Structures are given as C-alpha cells and as structure tokens.
Give the backbone structure.
Amino acid sequence: MTPIPHKTTHASRTAGLTYILKKSLLSALVALVLFSLMVGVRTEAGSDGQLTYWTRFGEVAALVAGVFGGSIVIELLRQWIGPAGAEKLVPPAVQSGMSFVGRYLAPALLIFTLLVPVIFYNQRYILDLAILVLTYVMLGWGLNVVVGLAGLLDLGYVAFYAVGAYSYALLATNFGWSFWVCLPLAGILAAFWGVLLGFPVLRLRGDYLAIVTLAFGEIIRLVIINWQSLTGGPNGVPGIPRPSFFGIPLDNSDDGLAAKLGIEYSPTHRIVFLFYLILALALLTNWVTIRLRRLPIGRAWEALREDEVACRALGINTTTTKLTAFATGAMFGGFAGAFFATRQGFISPESFTFQESALVLAIVVLGGMGSQLGVALAALAMIGGFELFRGLETYRMLVFGMAMVLIMIWRPRGLIGHRAPTVYLTKAQAISSDLVKEGHG
Amino acid sequence: MDYFAQQLINGLVLGSIYGLIAIGYTMVYGIVGMINFAHGDVFMIGGFIALITFLILISLGLTAIPVILLVVLLVAMAITALYGWTIERIAYRPLRHSFRLAPMLSAIGMSFVLTNYSQVAQGARVKPIPPFITGGYTLHESADGFVIQLSNIQIMVVITTIVLLAIFTWLVSRTRLGRDMRACEQDQTMAALLGVDVDRTISMTFVIGAALAAVAGFMYLLYYGLVDFFMGFVAGIKAFTAAVLGGIGSLPGAMLGGLAIGLIETFWSAYFSVEYKDVAAFSILIVVLIFMPTGLLGRPEVEKV
C-alpha cells in the first residue's frame, strides 16, 4: 500500500492562538463526555447485592481541565517542533555517532552488568530487579529470533515460557531431577512445542498467524489451569527445588558451597548465583543469535522476512526455515521458563497470561526488531520503568499502557532503528529500519 | 433431542453477541488492515456505560421498561462510539502509515489502558444488576419433564442482532458512507484522489464498530446480569477468533464465525466439559485454518511480486 501524503499543516500554523484554543476546547468537550459517566458516577455493589452509586463531579472537572491544559501544551509543542521529515538512510554524522555509541555502549553495559552483584551486594531489591530484567532480556532475545529475524508474528510466546517452567517444575518435584538435567530438557520440550505450533501455521500469514499463536498460548494456559491432576491447576506447583552449583547445594548445610569454600554462609550467595546464571543464559541466547545470523539458516530467516516469494524462487525451503525459527525461539523461551521456575520456587498459571506475551513482544518491537542491544535496552526501560511505578498500585498498568501507546507514536520503529548487515560489499553500513521489512508471516 | 434444541438456542444467543463484536474487528481490519486489540475493551466500556445509565434512570424513578431500555441503548451507543473515535484519533491515526506492528502494539497498550481505566474508575468488583426482562415461552415439554425454554431476553438479543445486521448491511451497500468505506478498503490513495475523505471514513468505521460493540455490551449486561472490568479481554479474544474463523475482512463471515464460536462453546460445555470449552473453540479455529488458511468466507490472498 502506498502511503498517502499527510495533510499539510500550514493552515493550522498560521491560524495561531485561536486555533489552539478551539482545538483544546474541543478535546475538553470530548473528555467531558467520555468521563461523564465512567468517572463521574461510581457504582458499587452493596452488602445485600444491590448496586448503589455516588457522583464524583470534582474528579471529572479535574480530568477535563487536565485534558484542556494538556492539549494546549501538545499543540504548542507540535507547532514549535514542526512535522518531522522521514529519513531513509542514516546520515553519516549520526551513523558515526551511533557506531561510536554502539561500539562502546554494549561492552560498557556488559561490564556494568557483570559488576552489578559486586556493586549492589547488600541491596537485595536491586539484585532481584536485575534478575527480573535479565529474564526479560533473555525472553526478548528469544522472541527476537521469531519476530525480528524471521518476521513471524508470535503473540503466544509465553506458552513456551510456560512449557519450560512446568517441565522443570514437574520433573524436579516428581522425579527429583536436578536443574542441570532439566534445563536442556525444558529447552528441548519447548522447542518440540514450537515445532508443533509451527506445523499448522506454515501456510498462514499476517493476522491469521497472529490469532493462531495467540490461541495456542491461551490453549496451553487453559490446559495448565484445568489439568489439575498433573499441574495442580490454579494452585500451581509449590516447592520447586532451588538450583545447585553443579551439584553442590547453596545452603547452610555442611556440604553446602559456603562450607566447602570455608566462607560464612549468606542467603545472598544464592541470589548472586541466580544472577550470573540468568546472565549466562541470556548471553548464550545472544551469542547463538549473532552466530546464527551469519549461518545459512539465519540468512534464510532474514530472507524470509524480506520476501517469502523470492525465498521460494531461490530454492530456500520455507517449511524448515519457519519451523527452525519457531523451534529456536521456543527453546530459549523454555530455558528462561526453567530458570523462572527455579528462581521463584513456585509457579502458577497466573504468570503465563497474554499480558506477558504482549510485554515481551513490546520489548522486541520497542527495541527495534532485530537489534540485540535495542532489545536489552528496551527490557531495561520497560521492566525498570514498570518497577518505578510500583507505588502507584492500580494505576501502574494504566501508566504502562499509556507509555506503550506514546512510545509507539514517538518511535514506531523502536529505540535502535537501524540494522547492522551481516553481508556487505566493501564497508559495513548501517541500514535504517524503514528499509527493513517486517515480514508477512 | 430437547436438550439439543435448548443448547442450540443458547448457542445462537451467545453467538449473536460474539458476532456483533466480531463485526467491529472485521470492519477495522478490512479498512485499515490492523487488529484493533482494544475492541474487546470497548465492548466492556459499553457494558459499563449501559449499567451506569440504568442505575441513574431507575433512581430517577422511571418505571417504563421499554423507555429505559431504549434510552440506555442510545446513551451507551453514543458514548461508546465517542470512545471508539477518540481511541482511533489518539492511538492509531498517528501510526496509520507506519509499519504493521506499531499500530498493533499501540492497540495492545490501549487495551491495557481501557481495562485499568475502568478498574480504577469503577472498582475491581463484579457489578450485578437485577434481571429486567423476565419471562419467556415454553416451546416444548417432553415426557420426562425436560422443558425447552425461550426467554424474552433471548428473543430480544436475536431480534436486535438481526435488525442491526439489516441496518448495517444497508449502510455498507447502499449509502454514500458505505461506498466510501468500500472504496477505502480497496485503495486508499485512489479513494482520496476521487474525493473520499479517508480520515473521516476511517473515523466513522471506528465509530460504527464501537457502537455495535456497545450494543453487544448492553445485551451482555441484560443477558448475564453483570459486568466487570476484565470481561473485555475474553470476549474480545473470542470475537477476534470468530472474525478470523469467518475470514477477517468479510462481514457475513464475522457473523457466521460468531455463531460458530457460540455454538461450539455451548455444545462443548453441554456434552463434554465446561472447563475445556475455550480450548475446544481455539482448537477448532486452528484446525479450520489448516485447511482454509483464509477462514470460512475470506478471499484467498493473491500475492503480487
């Protein structure tokens, strides 16, 4: 579809103050109607089951005033900044700046991440948050293989996370298998489910693919909830064993790691161990992805994203290409799931809702669909930002949703909007992501 | 046999509600080519506005049920339509010519906003209302005492759906707006060149979709007697499934898909297990799509190189 040129805004620019006031008044009027009943009238079921209501006109007035003021500010800003022109190729100055930042930002971030447990050793909260962020970095990198590289829209990624988590939880609690045996198994099982999902969707494209992956995620969640004899249903699986340091438990016992090393036991050891474990898993995901991009299979994924018809014409087997993409992405999801289970010690279906899938997808898209550094930064921003608003309680998801909308409007192509090509003639040149297709599959 | 007939009635009523929501999905998809993830929440907002209007009207002392129903329906449709318009204006219009995933994520964000907005504004508890339309007809009574009931509310839901579909079909096929909508669906640039106001047409599509979702919310409230802030998610996914099952972009397909999902759910709960009714609906979607990749009534996608 060819883009339609935007309506020119010159007329509005000359109109000035009256135009702004008129537009803001209109926004305020719309806000008044929108909020009149939903905010202005609060309903609540009484003790006898009868609904009662009371009015809150003050809140409505405040909101409408807020919208009025906000839209004046937005209009002023819009006139001040003016319409932004689209740039196709990254300009050289920006590119050299980006490559400078890109060259040093990633190693700097990595070194900082490695040092986090040293710097924040006594701050349990920060360590826990860092582990959470790294889990999402890993999930983002895993989903990036499917969405960013192969261009297959997956709205049910959390299903593989759930498969990995439940694989480890059930194997460990029922058979007493160790984490290090279950971790590969969880990955393999998740990859198997990825192939299972891949088969029916081979012929599907676009939104048909989206709904099938979404349905798949929901099916997995519903089966986990309802298969109570195996999974414990909504009550979840409690008492999942903590991971050991390759067989040596991280506890206060005589054969624990602390005792063997001859140092004083501290519960922080386990947190630090978990931190490095997820860091290693995430870096493994990253390394495998970077290597795969240079292998024929990775090139086939990116070719598939760019043009499926051309792919077939060149003799690329699209079936295996799609299935390997699903399987690889799912495997990393499974690893992350097993880690999640061992870290939490308790899992329930509530952790594997559609919101998680949406969150991971948001991280990938916000990160720039294919940029490894971008995904890591996006995970940090999303999860960290989400934590910042912890005090807001119920308003948190509201703010989160608004942020998602605003970020998409601000940077539809993600934080890091360019790609590093893996093949080039003489000189590696960053490509603006406007030129990168997002795939139809 | 009697049991089957009763389930058929229940399934058709549920399917009508799904179908009305599915039309909103399919219309938006047809014209802008995006999944409006927030549509299920628009349906929920419609239910809430209907509930609040009911409460106000009753506390004002109105007793004429038909008048109350009509006023509630109109208010819910009007305000929810404005919600649809605002959502399009804020979250989708700036991303109209952006790449495919951006509006979808913006829609998911909008869906979070709406869900939590109603939780914050109206509380997390389920809001029940007493039944307004009572009574019904006994169609058949078998020897062992099983009665096929057709309640008045079920009749109302089905008749409202049929009337709305008739109006809607007329709107799309006979009016200027419908012609504009179909033109935009085929080629927005060409439509704009021929004097169609594309922005306005797309806005109107969202307005109509939201109004239909409000009707669905209103009927859900009457039929089940309750609303809560989370009902939009499940209903939205089901309706989206219905739209895709019928072939997304096709209006009769959306209704057909809605009825199919409603019937599958009802019969699965009646004959197999209630717990797995959603699994059944989703599995049948996947199976149908394996053999008909563009749904029941969807046009096959022609790929141009």
Confidence is low (pLDDT under 50) at residues 1-13 of chain A. The two ends of chain A are 17 Å apart (CA to CA). Strands of chain A lie at 41-45, 51-55, 418-419, 431-432. The longest helix of chain A spans residues 92-119.
